[in-house]
Amino acid sequence: MELRQLEAFVAVATELHFGRAAGKLHMGQPTVSDLIRRLEREMGTKLMTRTTRRVALTSAGSELLGRAKVILDEVGSACAAVHRLAAGQAGTVRLGITPPVAPALAPHLATALRNAAPDVDLVARRLWLPDLDRALTDGTVDVAITCGAFAEPPGVVGEVFCGEPLQVALRPDHPLTERDSVALSDLAGETFGLHSAALFPAWSRAHLQALEAAGVAPAMVELADTDLFARRWAEQNEVDWILTTASMAATGLRTPTRPVRPAQVVPYTLQWNPSRAANAAVGRFVHLALTADVPAGWVTLPGHLRHRR
């Protein structure tokens, strides 16, 4: 039994007219008649009676009609599902993110993907940088997003595609709180609190890169606060200031923050391994991340396809 035979049978059984069924199928009427005869031979029974004036279903034909419609519907659904997967309109994307990405960027991209491809399932996992590198290399995650810019492992493609402006967090009585923005050079003589590189390697690396870019080398101490958002950093008396971002500070940081002048950003890098992409939805997500609007107040960077250089 062929699908063409079932399609011809359903068309004739629905129209009860060979000519109209042939037109609906864009076939010649002799071809439709031949498909029905072959189907009846394979079934071993008449499925319809034909006269010069009318076509009528036999009891066997009536029984087959309902079942044939179900079969054709299932085949159509299966084809549609396969096409959607092939086009990246369905499937699962496993996203690995370092914790600093989570507050603003991860939900922003999840919403953009849901609007663009609602049948793609995004499964996000928070991973520390060493675990994220391993997961991307061995294919446990399809896409990784982390902060900072660094060399990719073999086979991995990376794009520094967006960034969030840095802010300085100061003690409430610090004289620089009277300014609208603060230059890192103005704080070079004061003690900087740096997140633990063991706990937050990507975040601390991004801060060190910012200090290097600004050409300042302040005295540093490791923050005793093991909270990523450093909401209790001011309780550490020897620390005068820290670096943060608006999305990080919005989680409950109680000390004043000011934008860094001249503006600096924490860069975010998107990485993926094309040879290990589980399905076309991975490529769909990568393209969306590199073309979608960034969160309010953020900036695009050279890896973003809409970045204006």
TrEMBL record:
Keywords: Activator, DNA-binding, Transcription, Transcription regulation. One of its GO terms (cellular component) is protein-DNA complex. Residues 1-58 form the HTH lysR-type domain. SUPFAM superfamilies: Periplasmic binding protein-like II (SSF53850), Winged helix' DNA-binding domain (SSF46785). The keyword Transcription applies. It holds the Pfam family HTH_1. Gene3D superfamilies: Periplasmic binding protein-like II, Winged helix-like DNA-binding domain superfamily/Winged helix DNA-binding domain. One of its GO terms (molecular function) is DNA binding. InterPro entries: LysR_HTH_N, LysR_subst-bd, WH-like_DNA-bd_sf, WH_DNA-bd_sf. Signal peptide: none annotated. The keyword Transcription applies. Required for the induction the katG gene for catalase. Involved in the response to hydrogen peroxide. Belongs to the LysR transcriptional regulatory family. PANTHER family: HCA OPERON TRANSCRIPTIONAL ACTIVATOR HCAR (PTHR30346:SF0), TRANSCRIPTIONAL DUAL REGULATOR HCAR-RELATED (PTHR30346). This is Probable hydrogen peroxide-inducible genes activator. It comes from Mycobacterium asiaticum. The lineage of its organism: Bacteria, Bacillati, Actinomycetota, Actinomycetes, Mycobacteriales.
